[in-house]
Design brief:
- This protein has 356 residues and is mainly β.
- It folds into 3 domains: 12-128, no CATH class; 135-237, no CATH class; 245-351, no CATH class.
- Helices cover 6% and strands 32% of the residues.
- It is built from 4 helices and 28 strands.
- The strands form 9 sheets. Strands 23, 24, 25, 26, 27 and 28 form a 6-stranded antiparallel β-sheet that branches. The chain has a 4-stranded antiparallel β-sheet with strand order 14-18-13-19.
- It is flat, with a radius of gyration of 23 Å.
- The two termini are 20 Å apart.
């Protein structure tokens, strides 16, 4: 079974210690960093259109969909945290100068339905984990993994002991130890182990790290599961898919598909909450991804809605999911950008790709 290496809960957000954060805020461990939340654990977001310092651009109907995180009557600015006075006189918390919002369609802690919403203008307030020089975090088919400076996936070995590598001699020919410089010092979850040959090797949570000789390109994870003892250092695995769905390779990379490999698509909204594909257009070109039962929730973001025709349909991050009748074989993505709008090149139909 694949092991998952989870990052420890960070104690700092953007240089501001959590202990010094306002009472209305908290953090959630995301594995590869931390997500800023309100005191109830609901995800907080930033808005790309908030460009004028000390002012929120989300007012009126926008603020109904994206409620601002309001400050208490006695709240005062502290390092890293400031207060924005809204048009109605209410005071709103800002982090590093960016006003903070909830999303009305998030229903439970852990939901991130608003991430990259409204044509990628909204983003989760996320702080990446700190890594030593030469160690990075990369996306892979398994999720976000530790990687070296070239993007090569890092692995851990079940045969090692805490703080000691037992992969020596011929083992080290296939699994190259991640060398630590002479000046490297332990810090948090990061430590340095001495190998039998006297060289220094990086370890994460006391587990020595290696590069696999079988990974010929950055981002590959072909060493995962080797000999039932080697595992990619996964920090945040891909989101769990509902039964009846799988990942499929396409010209756009990995996409979410049904169990036959047919690409799934989401229907988003065009500007002014209008779609360029009406009911007749949808009926002629698209088939709903039918769900087996109401109330299912395999993971954050997934839900089931009842359609007017009585069918139950899967949604992801509140967006209904469809199959495109023009796709003829597994991996086809002919429906991507269907209904592309001439103004701004925005399209309401998009391939459903795996998210972390």
């Amino acid at each position: 079974m694949r092991s998952t290496v989870l990052a420890a809960l960070a104690v700092a957000i953007g240089g501001t210690t959590f202990a010094a954060a306002p009472a209305e805020l908290s953090v959630r461990d995301a594995g590869d960093g931390t997500v800023l939340t309100d005191a109830r654990g609901m995800t907080l977001y930033r808005f790309d259109m908030d460009k004028e310092p000390g002012k929120s651009a989300c007012v009126g109907d926008c603020a109904k969909a994206w409620p601002p995180l309001l400050a208490g009557p006695d709240a005062k600015p502290i390092q890293g945290w400031s207060l924005v006075v809204r048009d109605d006189g209410a005071r709103q918390w800002a982090h590093d100068g960016k006003p903070l919002y909830r999303y009305a369609l998030d229903s439970a802690p852990g939901d991130e339905n608003g991430n990259r919403a409204v044509f990628n203008l909204w983003h989760v307030d996320f702080q990446p984990m700190a890594t030593p020089p030469g160690i990075t975090v990369h996306e892979s088919l398994l999720g976000r993994v530790l990687a070296d400076a070239t993007g090569a996936t890092l692995y851990v070995f079940d045969g090692d002991k805490p703080g000691r590598s037992l992969c020596n001699a011929s083992c080290a020919d296939d699994w190259t130890p991640l060398t630590a410089p002479a000046i490297a010092n332990p810090l948090g979850d990061w430590s340095v182990v001495m190998r039998d040959d006297g060289t220094r090797q990086w370890a994460f949570k006391s587990r020595p790290l290696y590069v696999s000789a079988s990974d010929l390109k950055p981002g590959k994870t072909s060493g995962d599961g080797r000999d039932n003892a080697w595992h990619a250092a996964v920090l945040r695995p891909l989101a769990k898919l509902p039964a009846g769905m799988t990942f499929q390779t396409s010209d756009l990379g990995q996409v979410v598909a049904d169990n036959k490999g047919n690409t799934l698509y989401t229907l988003t909204e065009s500007p002014n909450r209008q779609t360029v594909c009406d009911d007749a257009c949808i009926s002629a070109n698209w088939r709903p991804m039918v769900a087996p039962a109401a109330g299912l929730r395999p993971g954050p973001g997934w839900s089931v809605v009842a359609r007017p025709d009585g069918l139950l349909q899967w949604t992801y991050k509140t967006k209904p999911i469809f199959l495109y009748v023009g796709d003829k074989k597994p991996g086809d993505i002919r429906g991507d950008r269907f209904g592309n709008m001439s103004s701004g090149g925005l399209a309401p139909w998009e391939v459903l790709q795996p998210e972390l």
